[in-house]
Specification:
heterodimer; A: 182 residues; mainly alpha; B: 292 residues; Glutathione S-transferase Yfyf (Class Pi), Chain A, domain 2; Rossmann fold; 2 domains; four-stranded parallel sheet; 14 helices; 9% strand
């Protein structure tokens, strides 16, 4: 792992994260409470407290390429328990957004990235989620056409899978939101 | 008080049982709600995960439509929706620059005057325990019910401002009102993994399995939830979890509105309980037999 980091780059990265987060990285004193309570810590490559420290140290590449930022389920247990009131779950959102803007493709968690993208595309075109279309497009993009297929017959029988979705009538207003912010 | 209703996408799709049962229950309680006209998706977990502006703007459109239509309060029964509406409301109310940016894009004013309630909050505060109690015709005595809260109803506490984030009791209180016995267990706010249900099913099954087996160990007959995403993981994935861990669970998972509806004397069909994947016939027979 590259350990020598240009101080200017470090400061730029820290400042970008802190501006988006509306919080200060130096608040964290590395007690590890966030990582202890994290429900998905067993799958992560770096624990949440490590991510905070690495961000503070300017270790942009390993942080933005980590599995951790994508595996975080935003359950907010970390932020709720942080004795310093640091936005732990918030930093995961910020790092995911920076990674997305930079077009970084996760090597291991690409499916999670694809899901978010397909979800927002569905909102963009319908204004609401049409579940069948969402799942279909997601399966096509991830080439996992048959995963969860065995659930489909019973879900249809139970009336859980609708064959058509509702659309927002003023779809232009949704298009404008996406034009302004996407 | 004019009450707006924000159903969200799940209640019109995979979790239609939630909407059917909540409308029935509110009908019994004689409470009128009005769907926000032309509402849109709140952006759920996807928007806040990769695009902060969208995560505020999408819920803000609904909030602004409701406010401009003269509503003072919104009921958002989906825990994910209520969490996104509350978060957007909080940010719009505390950050003038952000509010200007968002309202300019929406081309609608928004003064962040609206109150947002999740289902439990609404039942306990707007409806009230006494009112609920007065409608109970079929007490659910002898039925052991575990309330599963998950994450988004109570966390983060500074925005949700509802119940205790580590040991919430509001749903247990509603369970007790029906005459059923509230089962205490340690994992009631542990995450089911909702956000990654499709993209990381193995992780989700590990998390959800942990919760379900824990509930089972504590002797519950039934699980109640107030979130369609929790419901989807606990109910729809339950068979798969049983297969994965080679141990039967067999726990029906129903919405809190369905439990209330049963205690109000409504039939399981009226509450769409037959729409769930895990069969609830055994416990329903016990409930119906006791009331005969």
């Amino acid at each position: 792992m590259k350990t020598i980091i240009n101080e200017q780059d470090r400061r730029n990265f820290v400042s970008q994260v802190e501006t988006m987060l509306h919080d200060k990285l130096a608040k964290c004193y590395q007690c590890g409470k966030c990582s202890a309570g994290c429900p998905v810590n067993f799958e992560m490559d770096y624990t949440p407290n490590q991510i905070i420290k690495m961000t503070e140290l300017g270790m942009q590449d390993p942080v933005l390429n980590s599995k951790t930022i994508w595996l975080c389920v935003s359950c907010n247990t970390c932020s709720t328990r942080c004795p310093k009131g640091f936005e732990v779950a918030g930093i995961m959102d910020v790092l995911r957004e920076i990674a997305t803007r930079k077009g970084i493709e996760s090597k291991t968690e690409k499916e999670i990235q694809v899901f978010h993208k397909v979800f927002l595309d569905n909102v963009k075109s319908n204004g609401r989620i049409f579940e069948l279309e969402l799942v279909g497009k997601y399966r096509l993009k991830t080439k996992r056409l048959f995963r969860d297929m065995f659930l489909a017959p019973k879900m249809i029988e139970k009336g859980k899978l609708r064959m058509s979705g509702d659309k927002v009538s003023a779809i232009n207003s949704i298009a404008k939101i996406f034009r302004d912010f996407e | 008080m004019k009450l707006a209703y924000y159903p969200g996408c799940s209640l019109k799709g995979t979790s239609f049982e939630y909407e059917v049962s909540l409308l029935k229950v509110l009908e019994v309680l004689n409470i009128e709600i009005k769907e926000i006209p032309d509402w849109n998706c709140c952006g759920a977990s996807a928007a806040h995960s990769i695009n902060h502006n969208l995560s505020v703007a999408l819920p803000a459109r609904n909030l602004a439509i409701a406010e401009n239509n003269g509503f003072e309060n919104v009921l958002a029964p989906c825990a994910a929706c209520s969490s996104r509406l509350k978060t957007a409301n909080y940010e719009l109310g505390s950050d003038d620059v952000l509010r200007k940016k968002i309202t300019d894009s929406l081309d609608m004013p928004y003064n962040a005057s609206l109150g947002v309630s999740n289902m439990l909050e609404f039942l306990l505060n707007a409806v009230g325990k006494e009112n609920i109690k007065s409608h109970i015709k079929r007490p659910l005595n002898g039925i052991k019910v575990a309330s599963y809260y998950g994450c988004l109803l109570v966390r983060p506490p500074k925005i949700m401002k509802f119940d205790d984030p580590e040991n919430p009791v509001s749903m247990d209180e509603l369970v007790s009102l029906t005459g059923a016995t509230a089962v205490d267990y340690p994992y009631k706010t542990d995450c089911c993994g909702a956000i990654n249900s499709l993209s990381k099913p193995d992780v989700v099954m590990a998390l959800t399995g942990k919760v379900l087996y824990n509930i089972k160990e504590h002797g519950a007959d039934l699980v109640v939830v107030a979130c369609p995403l929790c419901h989807s993981n606990l109910d729809v994935r339950q068979r798969e979890i049983e297969r994965k861990y080679s141990e039967r669970i067999g726990l029906p998972v129903i919405f809190i509105t369905e439990l209330l509806g049963l205690s109000f004397g409504l039939s399981p069909e009226e509450l769409a309980i037959d729409g769930h994947m895990v069969n609830a016939d055994k416990i329903l027979q016990k409930i119906l037999a006791a009331s005969r």
